Amino acid sequence: MSNLCLLSPVILHFSNKLNITFLCPQKCPAKSSLGLKLCISSHVCAIAPLLRFDNNAISLAFKLPIFHRLRDYIISLAKAVYLLRFKNYRLFRDLYDYLLADKSTSNSLKDALLLHPRTGYLYFDGYKALNIIDSFTKGSHKIPRRLVSYLKSVQKELSDGLKSTNSSILSFLSAGEANNPKLFQQGEVLGQYSLKPFSIKICSLPENPELIYQVKFTEELGPFLPIVWSLSTLMRIKYSADFTTGHGYLSRLLLSKFRMAIKAARRLFPEVNNCLSPQIALLAAFDSIGFIKLLPFLIDDMVEEFFIDAPGVSIYLDHSSWGRCRSNISINKSDVERILTQLRAESSLRLDYSSPSLKTDVITKFFHVRVSVDAPPLTVGSPSIIFRRFRSKPWTIIDLINNGTISSEAAAYLIFCLFRRRNIMAIGEPATGKTTLINALDMLTPLHWRKITIESVVESIDQLPLGRHQVRFRVDPFEKSSPTRRKYWEVIRLLHRSPNYLYLGEILTREHVKALLYALSSGLRGLETCHASSPESLFVKWVVHYGVPAFCLNDLDVIVLMKRRLNLHVNRRYVARITEPAIAGLTDSLNSIRLVDVFKRNSYSEPLKAVINLYESPTLQKIRREESIDEEDFTKELIFYKELLEHLCNLNASSPEVISNVFAKAFCSSQKGFFDVEEVIGDVRALTRL
User: Shortest CA distance to 475 belongs to which of 463, 464, 465, 483?
Assistant: First the structure.
């Protein structure tokens, strides 16, 4: 955890008292790595904004996770910093501009007053800063008189504060400067990448099969961590709009705090360049709501899912390239309580003894996740939290072909069925990529279709920016004890909402199955997901356990079975089978259901191949009853889609905008009977180069 300082000041406001505590441990590895100076600077900067409340009406109480002998020293420095940076910040800006302009006299004074990794004496060495300020106020330097008076007030505050501290603290500070990098067990670095404001390393440790997802602050940001904690404190006490709870609450709150933090950083800390300000503001905004320890996982597109089993244990995750990894970040009980408070506010759902489970989605400018929480008495001891991430750039069908999830021929067949408004259901065990597949297909629908989504947790992609006609409904999750917006009733109401295609999300309960089959029997078609280990087990669950008549299942059309291989250092999802039901007669028996495999992968390592003549598949037979299409035209259209997909793969044209535009043209071209790949692709080559 070498330079991962997570000070995280927490402020509890009582009637006439402010309690300030810090969540970092006293024996902090970051303190040993970065040095005691930066640790002291962090505490000083975090406390300084609060001193505006240090008066007769409100008292301050500090609980510092640092050596007791430093307490009075830190508070003395914080008072001087408050006077310098916060109470008279306009004068500080004038002084800063003067120091930049006057090259002959400014170096030592800048060393005393400006935050810097090796200087910035005011923030950790008050005695040295006092001597430098004293030499300038008494010397012959041509500093404007108002700035001299300003420096004298800071000098007096600092001098009065240091009188109560022990001067032997200087030797203590010097002794605390020795770094000890051997404190951290080193392993082989298998991969690393930048994720500003963090850098990520994937490491393997000796005699430990589980990989380590190591989070560190970037080298350029590390020296300015005190500013992060100062802005975080400021964001907690600064007035912000009174946001109403419910979906969108966290988005509005984070965006407001992020903007305020950027503005405050540029006003109060002019030494920070404009490139670094957004990173500092991002950390401060997330820390102010208790999410800073989650931030690297929330913004990393390589993280698919991460888990919090209990306070005091490491957060672990599923990495898209390296599989299951353990991180170097752990959270405590206070962190968990703050996270749950924010999730309750976002969802407006209960999480208590009578309703110990919660499921919601959180969509912000910075991340999109689905969160599941289970709490006591359902869980033993402490709450469990699972975050399912959605990529900032969603997977497209081209991405899925390139990473081996599906073959171009199978994708072409699904597109053919999609353009004929056939129902497509993705099934599989949890976290096998079902939603990823139907989202990729959903982006390919024709532009003129009116699509309606009904979900308890929003996992669909907002396609209004892509020029689609889309309306999205959010219904109550089945975890809610007394739901008022139920999926079943909203599906029935769909008949008066004129949809061309549906997106029903997860089919979890018997009521959801009834809603789906009601929609299908009414002539509606769409995309869904359902948990099942195979098509056979899906029908057993529905017919035997839910009591659904077998003949009602004939409208399901296409069933795609997703599988996942999660082994040591391996995390891969793939389409295992594409199956279609063929049901004879109006009978309730399972024996009347015949499942026809259209595509199949015999083993994990083998490719997905067609196993029958596609023109004779059950879905094609339904299509042939509705439109006149001979085998030659079908083959020609299928080859057209296949070649189009392969051309896009070769061009690496995988952005949602490009894919959406190309397949909108492909649909129009197929309707006219033209199958010219080059004409449809058009300017894609130029767009991909840009």
Answer: 483
Query: How would residue 685 be classed by pLDDT, with cut points 50, 70 and 90?
Result: low
From the list 203, 237, 570, 156, the residue with the least C-alpha distance to 404 is: 570
Number of domains in the chain: 3
Q: State the CATH number of the domain containing residue 269.
A: 3.30.450.380
- Assess if residue 439 is contained within a domain: yes
What pLDDT band is residue 676 in, cutting at 50, 70 and 90? confident
pLDDT of residue 177: 46
Residue 549 near residue 514, CB atoms below 8 Å: no
Indicate the residue among 572, 596, 612 that finishes a domain.
612
pLDDT at 140: 57
Same domain assignment for residues 17 and 161: yes
Query: In terms of domains, do 280 and 336 share one?
Result: yes
**Looking at residue 422, which CATH number applies to its domain?**
3.40.50.300
Say if residue 330 is in the same domain as residue 414: no
pLDDT at 538: 94
Q: Which two tokens stand for residue 118?
A: 């090796």
Whether 214 is in a domain gets the answer yes
Q: Which two tokens stand for residue 320?
A: 């898209």
Quick one: pLDDT at residue 482? 67
636 has a pLDDT exceeding 60: yes
Concatenating the DSSP letter of every residue in 463-512 gives -GGGT-EEEEEE---TTSSS-SS-HHHHHHHGGGS--SEEEEEEE-SHHH
Query: Do the beta carbons of residue 546 and residue 513 sit within 8 Å?
Result: yes
Claim: this prediction has a pTM higher than 0.85 = yes
Which domain does 166 fall in, by range?
9-175
Is pLDDT at 526 greater than 90 in this prediction? yes
- Asked if residue 585 is part of any domain, the answer here is yes
Instruction: Determine the distance from the C-alpha atom of residue 239 to the mean position of all C-alpha atoms in its chain, rounded to a whole number.
Output: 26
Q: How far apart are CA 259 and CA 254, in angstroms?
A: 9
Are residue 171 and residue 205 in the same domain, yes or no? no
Predicted local distance difference test score (pLDDT) of residue 372: 95
Q: What are phi and psi of 139, to 5 degrees?
A: -85, -170
pLDDT tens figures, 9-37: 777 666 677 777 776 665 666 665 566 77
User: Residue 510 contacts by C-beta under 8 Å, 6 or more apart in sequence?
Assistant: 546
Task: State the chain's mean pLDDT as an integer.
Answer: 85
Q: How far is CA 113 from the centre of its chain?
A: 37
Residues 410 and 362 in one domain: no
Q: Give the Cα separation of 199 and 197 in Å (integer).
A: 7
Cα separation of 141 and 86, whole Å? Answer: 25
Residues 407 and 372 in one domain: no
Cα–Cα–Cα angle for 84, 87, 91, rounded to 5 degrees: 60
Q: Give me the percent of the chain exceeding a pLDDT of 70.
A: 86
As a whole-number percent, the residues of the chain with pLDDT over 90 amount to 48
| CA 344/CA 357 separation, integer angstroms | 11
Asked if 579 and 456 sit in the same domain, the reply is: yes
Q: Which residues are CB-neighbours of 625 under 8 A, at least 6 positions away? A: none
Show which of 577, 612, 647 is a domain's final residue: 612
356 within 8 A of 336, measured Cβ to Cβ: no
Q: Which residues pair with 61 in a beta bridge?
A: 19
Residues 482 and 334 in one domain: no
What is the per-residue pLDDT across 648-667, written as a single tens digit (0 to 9) for each?
Answer: 999 888 899 999 999 999 99
Structure tokens at 205: 């440790």
Give the tokens for residue 217: 């602050």
Residues 6+ apart with CB under 8 A from 633: 673
Beta-strand pair 526-531/558-567: unpaired
For residue 47, being part of any structural domain is answered with yes
Residue 354's SS3 state is coil
H helical segments located in 102-193? 107-113, 126-138, 145-162, 169-175
Q: CB–CB of 355/481 below 8 Å? A: yes
Helix (H) or strand (E) holding 61: strand 59-63
